[in-house]
Amino acid sequence: MPDSLRVSKLLLRAGVSAFIVMMPAGAQVAATGAAPPGQEPPARTSALEEIVVTGIRASLEKSLDIKKNAGVVLDSINATELGRFPDADVADSLSHLPGITITRTTGGEGQKVNVRGLGPEYNIVTLNNRILATDDDARDLAFDVLPSELIAGADVLKSPEAAALEGSIGGTVNLRTANPFDNPGLHGGVHVEGNYNSMSTLHGTKYSAFIENTNATGTLGFLVGVVHSDNNLRTDSLNAYNQENYGPNSYPFDPNDTTTPRVALTALPCCITFGSIYDKKKRDALSGTLEWRPNESFRLTADALWTRLRDPQIGYNESYYFAYSTNPDGSPAWTNPTIQNGVVTAVTSSNFQPEMVNNTTDRNVNTALYGLNGRWQPNDRLTLDLDVYRSTASRPEGGADTFVTAGLVTDQPYAPDTLIMTDRPHSLPDLNVLVPPSQLGLAACPAGTGSATNPGSCSYTALMNSGLLNDNKYWSTHYVGLNGYSVHDAITSFALDGSYDTGLAVFSKLRFGLGESRREKSRVDSSNDWTNGSGQYGTLYVTAGCPAQCNPYTFASQGFNVVSMIKPPNFMQGAGGSFPTTLPQLDAQALLAFLKSLDGKPNPYYCPPAPDVCTGPYTPFNFADTLPQPNPFNSYNVTEKTTSFYLEAQFAHQAWSGNVGLRVVRTTATASYAEAVPVSAWTPTIVGSTQTWNVQYAPATPVSTSGAYTLALPSANLSYWLIPNQLQFRSALAETMSRPNLNQLAPNATNNAINGDWSLFYSGKAGLKPIKAYQADLSLEWYYAPHSAITLAVFGKRVTDDIYSGVTPGVDLGTLQYIGGPPGTVPGAPALWTIHAPANGAKSTFTGFELSWQHMLHNGFGLYVQYTHTQSKGYDETGASTGPVNAVPPTTVAISLFYDKGPFSADINWEHTSSYSQACSQCTEIAGWPAIADPFEWLTASAHYKFARRFEVYIEGKNLTNAIARTYLNGNPLLPWAPGQSVGQSASGVGSGYSTYGRSFVAGLAYRL
Description:
The strands form six sheets. This protein has a 22-stranded antiparallel barrel.
């Protein structure tokens, strides 16, 4: 039985039979002075200002208090002390809350947040009620850019109100920074810690410090925080395992073969790539707040936040690609296939090319937010707030990423190696490659490397593990992808808010406000695919354009050391399957230097046909053609201007309280981009799935489009104390909206013609409308003891005008394809495209409930449990059911036990997410086959000890059960699935198919003034 299940059963036997809890929260007012929506900022009293929130217990108590007193449905989490959040990553802490799930990036770090069954694109993240600029096409924040030490608390608003910022259907995550008047006086602290990962044996360090003070008269205060971390990570991952759906649709491939029974094929194995991703992740951050309070009726706050993330990732991968062609003698490349329900689960494939893939991601993000907030109370009834801010994010990555290959060289026109692949249930496949010794210039296999099943052939696994192939004379390249997006985002905004105490018996307060924001986001895609620069070296390790290439250009032949081998500890632990445990490394910079050295030498890719060898005239290599160029067809600039106005009435009478209001939003968006479709594509000959096509485009046509919409968003929240201060009932009704991602407003187009796949993908559509939803919330909260409660929340959402991807096959856009040579040398044929384009029109429903229990004992022990279940149903533009909506686990459980008394505190946290459709039935390479993720569990623990009044030592552990993320295509345990790298988008492919992060441990020392 897994350790995590033993933990949960022990907890249940100990009395944990109820489910959910809300986690830590913070009641401090944000640096802007804004209170959580639904409640007016509390008056500053000396008693409140003297509260110092420290420790797990105090953090949970604050969480419950803020939930209890809020005017909307929300959950909250709070720092255990200033500069110390419950987890190293804010997203990890949020995952403890009901209705929250997260996606993880390398190292297992939480990166994106899902709320109540809706993915990040349906939610917004704010800092002190201000929108944060982001470093990708989306509007939601990647939490790994933000060190948790700078955050004092976070509120997840699940029912909206008119006074709250619009833009989320699932929920709004509002992060809060600290304010010097939250805890008057001089305070400070320093944290120093180191970490270690048991799988990778890598380590890192982190340093953080803060200082705050208020003057003796209580009129001026400041707070400054700084963080620096330097972390080394390794994540072993299945980056790609795809099935082919545009290859042969039956076996045998030869239509004239009448001797072998023909079997229909639904999917064929295409591309398997796996290995280790290494991160050198550095974060620097600085935050500051200066507040002036000359009198009780006025205050002015200036605050700023700056973060810098440096996260260069290098992925070293083994790669296996399958050929569907025939051998030189005309025999089929495949023999002995095992076909189950149209799926090839085992096969022997000749014409195979052993490869390695090196993919790098040079993620480099600068994020900043600075603003000015003023509050003035001219009389006892009227309060006015003015907030002005600017937020920016910049990721100048364009062209700095790589996706490059190396393969075993041969002077034959076809790869002479053989791949024997067998899928294993709940495992990576067995991959056995046979290499003829002649390919290595040997008469026989070296001792210990001969194949046990195929005498006369060498075992690729044995050759790799023996170190024989750690020699650059055996390797060269064929595909050199240089790419990357440069993204710049800037938001400028002001808001004027007011509240007026009416003095009336029922509608006690009137809130109103006006705001305007301008957001400009640009993306420049720099790559060499679209200019054919990536395929210039397509014949370096095996001839494709000519019958024979007698002298392949190996790395060693030009004096370059590009390839080396390493043996990572615990490589692909728990993955199953059989393959080399020695991992190939490809030095991308050395590879580029090697390619540049070939300038002026003949390029066999362009050789004219000849009986034996390439003959002149030659087309020479030109490295300049391989350098990435800005791609206008996949770049955009979007400007979005939003004006909003709201009016909200708050009421309170004995046991009743609530609000009702209307928010009106006017948004205008302008998008600039370019349009074009390939006019032709050609290839010397098709030899397998590694073949690269040469694609030509027409000149770019600049386009500018605009769209506008006005929405009125009503909302109502009601609270009623059934038993005063013990049993509270809440209800809420609202209309909400979520805007399309900014790239969806610009109809950029990408395609896969470079691989001979005629699929055209539009990322956006001019005039795309926002997604709307109608939602209802009911909750019951029983505060049965001090700092203890059981709460139940039920919700429903009806989403309309959702965005789906429409598919139109067989479209003739005038593109001609040429097989056997460039245009003018062979006849061309029309290429019929399958067009994918987004559109409004899908509908869905989300329903669910959240159950939580928090219980405190006087002896220092406590318990926190949460259980959430959501159900979703999707409908296409015609109203036909499409089944459950994908991308979020429908069931989550979190159980926490803690002790916090005196100088010692400790906690253990177990989280469970259920199986779910990670990619929908239309989102994978096989239509109708979703990618199903296995259940996943995450166990963390920590212990803290305070001594000598001002010092504290602590240890923390993450992923203590060594959890592994797994996903299978169509839920078939024989088909582990991962989508592959999203070129140019800083995506690493982690979290699908198979990903293991190892156990991580932190030891630290803290000092406080």
